[in-house]
Amino acid sequence: MDRPIVCIVGRPNVGKSTLFNKIVGKRIAITEDKPGVTRDRIYAEAEWLNKYFTLIDTGGLEPENEDTIMSNIKKQAEIAIDTADVILFVVDGLDGLTSTDREIGNILRKSGKEVLLACNKIDTPKTPNEIFEFYELGLGDPIVISGEQGLGIGDLLDEIVEHFPENKDTEYDEDLIKVALVGKPNVGKSSLINNILGEERVIVTNIPGTTRDAIDTFFNYGDERYVFIDTAGLRRKRNISEKIERYSVVRTLTAVDRSDICILVIDATEGVTEQDTKIAGYAHDNGKAIIIAVNKWDLVEKGDKTYLQYEKEIRETLGFINYAPIVFISAKTGQRINKLFDLINIVNNNYNLRISTGVLNDIINEAVLLNQPPSDKGVRLKIYYGTQVAVRPPKFVIFVKNKELVHFSYQRYLENQIRQHFGFAGVPLQFEFREKGD
């Protein structure tokens, strides 16, 4: 079963992003007191009363506005509404009912989805008379809240979780390995999912964009449980254009955020593309484990050194993720799919690997003896000790004297020394240098 999805919609500047950040508990959506700041959908995992769900923030809707940006916002909101289990319709309780609110209300009633009406920006205990205008929408009792002050949010969340479908999974599963299949459209992500499952769970055609959105597929293999997130190519078969392509990238980045491990699927007949590089960079910057799967390997004409040459080209283009293992597969024939699973398990173990402080400092001390830290104007960087402070991804804090002397090349050297001892295949390592007392 997959997570319930709650989508926040409304006209511009009613406080949707502020409410989104309040529910999620951290500042994810950019909030500014002007319309149109949020243009793309933003996803985050949220929780209330031990019930976990996915929350989506959307750009402000103006149904009759044909402006290019507003048209794009409307398309993004439509995608979110299509996938939502509960729609949270946010209105400005101080402005009262507007014609745009009525238009949006009409759209939401026709959607057939569960809709809750939230009257925002009510920062005082006294309910203004404008609230009663919203009964005209025919969407039930308005729920009075203040996203800025946090007033009424608990009551609102109580209502939201009451409307979750019974067939949705709201439990938190720490043992579940979340794997996102990412890459440009039509590289075979859906075919790979179908091969793994042994059935046609995901529609597969040779037309880019068949996958409408990110699709979660739960799967058991051996003693492990996985959820595979198959990311969208293009939203629709018709009207394929650069701006619609951008939406597919947004959905892919969202899948990366939700995952532990990203499998970057590359078309062997095309090689690494600019979009592949951007997706890999986003995964790396966000500390996700990465595996590179070169699909359609059965279509490549082989020579004595084809494999080595192809691997060399990938390493040169994606040098910033040289820790990522590469596997050459065919989703069509099933070639090396078992090896892909082995890699997922190895990388997942590395993602959760913790080095004891004593062993880590033995490695650091040996590294310092082999290669002295950098110096500047006669002052040399002094390293006191290090400790691992986190996993998923592994993060190391190194205590030093004069942290301004830390050079990127020496950090890379320390990283290489740690990898020589523990490998950490598929996993980015994060470092923070602190002075004593920081």
TrEMBL record:
GO molecular function, one term: hydrolase activity
Protein name: GTPase Der
Domain EngA-type G: 4-168, 177-352
Pfam families: KH_dom-like (PF14714), MMR_HSR1 (PF01926)
Function: GTPase that plays an essential role in the late steps of ribosome biogenesis.
Sequence similarity: Belongs to the TRAFAC class TrmE-Era-EngA-EngB-Septin-like GTPase superfamily. EngA (Der) GTPase family.
Keywords: GTP-binding, Hydrolase, Nucleotide-binding, Repeat, Ribosome biogenesis
Positions of GTP 1 binding: 10-17, 57-61, 120-123
Biological classification of the source: Bacteria, Bacillati, Bacillota, Tissierellia, Tissierellales
CDD domains tied to this protein: EngA1, EngA2
